[in-house]
Amino acid sequence: MAVVQTVVPNAEIIDRFLDAAWQEAGLRENTLSAYRNDLAQFAKWLSKRQPYLSKASRPDVLAYLSTSVKRGISAKSSARRLSTLRRFYRYLLRETLIDVDPTSEVASPVMGRPLPVSLSEDAVTRLLEAPNVGTALGLRDRAMIEVLYATGLRVSELVGLALSELDYRSAGLVRVTGKGGRERIVPLGEEALDWLRRYLSDSRPEILDARLSDSVFVTRRGRSMTRQAFWQMIRRYSKHAGISAGVTPHTLRHAFATHLLNHGADLRSVQMLLGHADLSTTQIYTHVARDRLRSLHARHHPRGGPGLPVS
């Protein structure tokens, strides 16, 4: 007599997968939330064919990705969705909840690598000067932008900073745990240090109003600022500074890397500061430093000459 395999409801099977992902890899809440959202979207689409994620087939996955492309989803987003599905179905296969992985022979979308959008040093200066530092929140905002530009932190790393990760009194360093649980030490620089000290001594106590928090950057509610709130803040100040290009927190990370290279930093050092696991990820920034590279070649190569105009 054949054994009938119990079908696990979608909500339960997603929870079990996320619990396992958290326990095994120590993934951050942001990553787990993205996994949940991707799986919920696939489950919603799949419900028109059949109700269970564990019953999805390879044609289902291919049709879902094809539909996503027709709806204008970028290759990068499609690749992320497929990556989520692969991890999910490998977990189900390992737990013997399915017999065949429906993603096993599905090719990833071909992606061109986008070039990072950066800001000029003048634009960064205008952005830094946009907050009204005569107010507690304005001083906090100035300190946040200064620290972001001085360190190149990811926005999740910035808003998640804890007081215990700062050494601002003596060494002027910040300890960051980035992607994959990799820890790195990043110097703050004198300008950011000065604004950070002013914020911590003058503004933060006023904002907290006797409440306790281990977060460096806090809100009126005594909580750490969210990524979304900081994104809106950057958007507001960029408009105030007259910067027409769409500015996001990640734009300042790009500016950090670009300006370091323009002023003579080597690529390996920039890789370490950004927390990139692979140097090839950092090399994307070299295109924005081409003026400096051509200038160096012209000055130091015996046949460098004045060089060609940069297009």
How would you describe this structure to a colleague?
This protein is mostly helical and about 300 residues long. About 55% of the residues lie in helices and about 5% in strands. It has 13 helices and 3 strands, in the order H-H-H-H-H-H-H-E-E-E-H-H-H-H-H-H. The chain has helices at about 10-25, 30-45, 60-70, 75-95, 120-130, 135-150, 155-160, 190-210, 225-240, 250-260, 265-275, 280, 290-300; strands spanning about 165, 175, 185. The chain has a 3-stranded antiparallel sheet, with no helix packed on it. Strand 1 and strand 2 form a beta hairpin. The protein is globular.
Features:
3 strands; three-stranded antiparallel beta sheet; disordered C terminus; mainly alpha; 311 residues
What is the topology?
Blueprint (H helix, E strand, L loop, with lengths): L9 H16 L3 H18 L11 H13 L4 H20 L26 H8 L7 H16 L3 H5 L6 E2 L5 E5 L5 E5 L2 H19 L18 H14 L8 H14 L4 H8 L4 H4 L7 H11 L11
Summarize the structure.
By secondary structure, the protein is mainly alpha-helical.
How many DSSP E strands?
3
Query: What is the chain-wise order of helices and strands?
Result: HHHHHHHEEEHHHHHH
- CA gyration radius, whole angstroms: 24 Å
The average pLDDT is: 83
Which term fits the overall shape? globular
Largest sheet: 3 strands, antiparallel
